[in-house]
Amino acid sequence: ELSGGQRQRVCIGMALMQNPSAFDRFQALTEAEKSTLMNNAVSIRSRDEMRAFVEQLADSGADSGIPDNTF
Fold first, then answer.
1. N or C, fewer C-beta in 10 Å, the chain?
2. Among positive and negative, which fits the CA dihedral 63, 27, 45, 56?
3. Residue 9 and residue 60: Cα distance in Å, rounded?
4. How many alpha carbons lie under 13 Å from residue 24 in its C-beta half-sphere?
């Protein structure tokens, strides 16, 4: 059985795989940026929030940082 954090990482991975732009953007992040992104995702509680978070990542330009958890 997965812990809460493990489940969340799986959900983020699944959401990223459904959005190629977000997946590409995630892959381009540094390890520190990926860590920050995962920390920002802690408060996500629904599929809609996850979808919005991933879309925000896809819409962010390479120089615009990473999304926070505001939708």
1. N
2. positive
3. 20
4. 8
